[in-house]
Amino acid sequence: MQRTMGNAAVSAALDRRAVGEAGPGTEPDAEDAESEFRLGTAAALQRVVNDDVKDLLGADRLHLSIGGGGGVAALRRARPVQDLDLRLHVPGRLGEDREFRQELMTRLKAILQDDVDDSTGTTVRGSFGGVEVSITLGQVPTQTRSMYVHDSTERVALTVVDPLRLFTDKVTAFAGRKEKEGEDLTQKRERDLRDLLTLYPQITAGRELTDVLAEHADDAQRIHQGLKSAGRFGQELGRFRKAHEDSFGAQDWEVLHEVARALSAAAKAQTKPRTGITARQTGNGPADPSGAAVPPGGADPPGAGKTDRKADKKARRQQKLADREQE
User: Keyword Amino-acid biosynthesis on this protein (predicted)?
Assistant: First the structure.
């Protein structure tokens, strides 16, 4: 089993990945210049969607944000950007209006001009300004990041997917990646893990990852999709390490396995039944600190049916498999 590393040591080890922002007049290397160009393209596309499309459709609070590797680069300036993975937030009932969504998709297809119509019900793929772009409809938490981009002499405000959501999206991506023609699966997965290591200090801020996940336990927009992939993530991480031990140093592997353990614990906690029934209401004895009654004789708490027990058992089995892979 991997030894748990102190969170302060983790943050100190990982903060070296944060690269300072270059101001105007600084000569970036070719890879940085390409990334700045793509983020500048994202800024231009944000203006088109947030202003023109929003006005044409009469939709308030419609906004485009940068996810994927572009989001990581915008937040930490620590990686190159090959393409743009964007999310379009459509608020409330408007997002459930089929006619509005169809009209919105039509306009997005016109903006992302491409010879191949590679569109789904929620995602449009194409190009803008010479950069490959995908735009997916959905509600995501965001934050604004001010930075210099290609040809800018002053900072540009970029809307970026929230760091914790980016983090759990990367967990899901790593766990679910499969072989595709023309793609290097190993390179893609290594990039996912490097992004996790890059984001880790920002989302934990010196705290334990388990505490951060517990704090957002009811926040479906930030963590729930990632928790669904927790067991698979641990298994695939163990397999990847066996095949590519030299890809990371010992400290980095320790952090990644700590991520797997924290995700697994959070996923397991999600499967446990919750109850608001107090001891006074049931007469079952003293309540625990949450106010829930403590059942006598080790009996299952109220509402813990067969489905709950199966889910809990499955989570334990997945954790055992993940632990074996890490040994």
Answer: no
Evaluate whether 267 touches 231 at the Cβ level (below 8 Å).
yes
Measured distance CA(226)–CA(165) in Å, rounded? 8
Q: What is the rounded distance in angstroms from the CA atom of residue 291 to the CA atom of residue 276?
A: 7
Single-letter amino acid, residue 40: G
pLDDT digits (tens, 9 = 90+) for 95-144: 778 888 888 888 888 888 765 555 567 889 999 988 999 999 888 899 98
**Is the separation of the CB atoms in 69 and 195 below 8 Å?**
yes
Answer whether 123's CB lies under 8 Å from 135's CB.
yes
Is residue 237 within 8 Å of residue 170, measured between CB atoms?
no
Helix (H) or strand (E) holding 74: helix 68-76
Closest CA to 135 of 124, 143, 149, 145: 124
For 54, the 3-state DSSP assignment is: helix
Cβ 163 vs Cβ 199: under 8 Å: yes
Residue range 19-161 in CATH 3.30.460.10 = yes
Domain ranges within the chain, ordered by starting residue: 19-161, 163-274+314-327
pLDDT in tens, 245-287: 999 999 999 999 999 999 999 999 987 765 554 444 444 444 4
Distance CA 167, CA 187 (A): 18
Which residues have a Cβ under 8 Å from the Cβ of 90 and sit 6 or more positions away?
A: 59, 62, 100, 101, 104, 137, 138, 139
d(Cα 128, Cα 37) in Å, to the nearest integer? Answer: 12
